[in-house]
Amino acid sequence: MATDTPSVLIVEDEPDLANLYAAWLGDTCDLETAYDGETALDAIDETVDIVLLDRRMPGLSGDTILTTIRDRGLDCRVAMVTAVEPDFDIIEMGFDDYLVKPVSKDELRRIVDQLTLRASYDEQLQEFFALASKKALLDAQKTDAELKSSQEYARLRDRLAVLRVQVNDTMEELLEQNGYRQLCQDITRDSILQESD
């Protein structure tokens, strides 16, 4: 996400509900609404950061739209916002989060904030690992004297240090949000239990 204001596409076949969501998010996002699947697919491109997607719609279902988004390789976050209670079929679905209607203004804003933060974390990690691999390559190929005399290498090290702090800060912020801290604790606990078996 290039800017602090995410581009959000609301896909909802009930216009009143779509317009309500848009009113709730309007001051924090660049918004577009689609009241059917065909319009949604026309609107989804590389400029869309987040899609809030209803599962059950006449014509193209949200599930079909989600599959198409992933097949196109679009790098947007998708939250299903639907009256369909989750079942085991969600395991294979490529969404990032799932809200069961009715949703509140706070829930909707929280999910957009969370998905924006997760996208930011992904971008930070990608840059961090790309720069870290360049540093490792230079460390292996150049002498200490060459490394110390290079301004480009010094800038690379400085950028890596800044990114390391940003990645840590973003991860802490993600962990502070509901559910993530417990999930990470569960993962840690499970891995410790497996090691002790």
Tags for this model:
5-stranded parallel β-sheet; 2 domains; alpha/beta; 5 strands; elongated; about 200 residues; Rossmann fold; 7 helices
Describe this entry's structure for a reader.
Keywords: Phosphoprotein. One of its GO terms (biological process) is phosphorelay signal transduction system. InterPro entries: Bact_response_regulator (IPR050595), CheY-like_superfamily (IPR011006), HalX_domain (IPR013971), Sig_transdc_resp-reg_receiver (IPR001789). By secondary structure, the protein is of the alpha/beta class. It folds into two domains: 7-103, Rossmann fold (3-Layer(aba) Sandwich); 122-194. 58% of the residues lie in helices and 12% in strands. The chain contains seven helices and five strands. The protein has helices at 15-25, 37-43, 62-71, 105-141, 144-149, 151-176, 180-196; strands at 7-11, 30-34, 50-53, 77-82, 97-100. A five-stranded parallel β-sheet has the order 2-1-3-4-5, with helices on both faces. α3 links the parallel β3 (50-53) and β4. The longest helix has 37 residues, at 105-141. The radius of gyration is 21 Å and the shape is elongated. The termini are far apart. The model has no long low-confidence stretch (mean pLDDT 85).
